[in-house]
Specification:
This protein is an alpha/beta fold. The chain folds into two domains: 190 residues, Nitrogenase molybdenum iron protein domain (Rossmann fold), CATH 3.40.50.1980; 123 residues, Nitrogenase molybdenum iron protein domain (Rossmann fold), CATH 3.40.50. It is found in: Cell envelope.
């Protein structure tokens, strides 16, 4: 296996990492970012967002020091411009976790510029991009049920942290890489990763139960951006957002008037279960869609791209699932 360490094999390639408030904001650590031979210094981990930082912290425990570059709900990861401090943190990292798929290209550039050897890429690790055009939604992939390509419009959905099996795979990859960097603590990393995976199982079972309840009912939703698409599909919901609307939002361009009108008509038409809304990338056009939903009495379910304050990954996804369930029952 190549350990340049932009790990090239899907078994060990994965994602932009999240830093958590619980882990502190510092990025400094042992020389070269690795623990000493006696395990006397924490491995420094830098992630693109605090989502991956939380997962890294859950696996690494007290043996890692995590810095998440994007950690606020007021920041838009798509358009984030890294600082000198970010570059310094990456240069000192023993492990960098990027999302990949074009989502957080700034982190890949920083890793290249600073010569960081170990980079996990979540998109590559998930296998979702590779199989996006060949697997129907819900088909078993490598022993886990994934939600398919994400938003059903033919292009790949890079928001893979909303796919629970992908994050279970990522946790295992993080443990394997930390074990390589810090062999004395290898068993502890792997045990914590296994515990994280086990925490996800009841939530996956709950989503599967929702999907079973919705089977054959054609439960439709619309989204202002396909951030939560994998989670929605895991619950058996169909995203029917007009393709031209989705493409414009994803490309951060103005939505064509015809597409915006089509979206508004869809939202006020009475056929949707709810509108999924991402406030981190809102603008005048998405706010207009939300206003139509409010006027029509359509439930609006909020989703974010980074962890809200006081949440960890599992509690966050549990809350998102609670919101989906409540909207379906309203």
């Amino acid at each position: 296996m190549s350990v340049s360490r932009r790990l090239a094999l899907p078994a060990l390639v994965a994602v932009s990492a999240l830093g958590l408030s619980a882990c502190g904001d510092g990025g400094s650590g042992a020389a070269d970012g690795q623990a000493g031979a006696a395990g006397d210094a924490a491995i420094t981990v830098v992630t693109a967002t605090n989502v991956y930082g939380d997962i890294a912290a859950a696996v690494g425990g007290d043996d890692v020091e995590v810095t998440s570059i994007v950690s606020s709900l007021s920041q838009d990861p798509h358009s984030y411009e890294p600082t000198v401090q970010d570059k310094l943190a990456v240069s000192e990292a023993g492990l960098v976790i990027e999302n990949g798929g074009g989502y957080d290209a700034f982190l890949g550039r920083l890793a290249d510029e600073t010569g960081v050897e170990t980079v996990l890429n979540a998109v590559e690790l998930s296998g979702l991009e590779e199989h996006a055009d060949e697997e129907p939604a819900g088909e078993d992939h490598e022993g886990e049920e994934h939600a398919g390509e994400g938003h059903g419009h033919g292009s790949f959905n890079e928001h893979v942290w909303y796919d629970l099996p992908a994050m279970a795979t990522l946790a295992t990859a993080i443990a394997d890489e930390l074990a390589r960097l810090d062999e004395p603590n290898a068993d502890a990393y792997r045990q914590r990763a296994e515990a994280f995976v086990e925490e996800l199982r009841p939530l996956q079972e709950r989503l599967a139960a929702l999907a079973s309840e919705n089977e054959g009912r054609d439960v439709e939703v619309a989204v202002t951006e396909p951030v939560p698409a994998y989670l929605l599909e895991a619950a058996g919901l169909e995203d029917v957002t007009p393709e031209a609307f989705t493409e414009a939002i994803e490309e951060e361009s103005d939505v064509p008037v015809a597409a915006l009108d089509e979206m508004k008509t869809l939202v006020e038409g009475g056929g949707l279960a709810f509108l999924a809304y991402n406030g981190q990338t809102e603008g005048a056009q998405t706010e207009a869609v939300r206003s139509v939903a409010d006027e029509a009495g359509l439930p609006v379910v909020e989703f974010t791209e980074t962890l809200p304050d006081g949440e960890d990954y599992v509690s966050w996804m549990t809350g998102n699932t609670d919101s989906i369930d409540a909207a379906l029952g309203s």
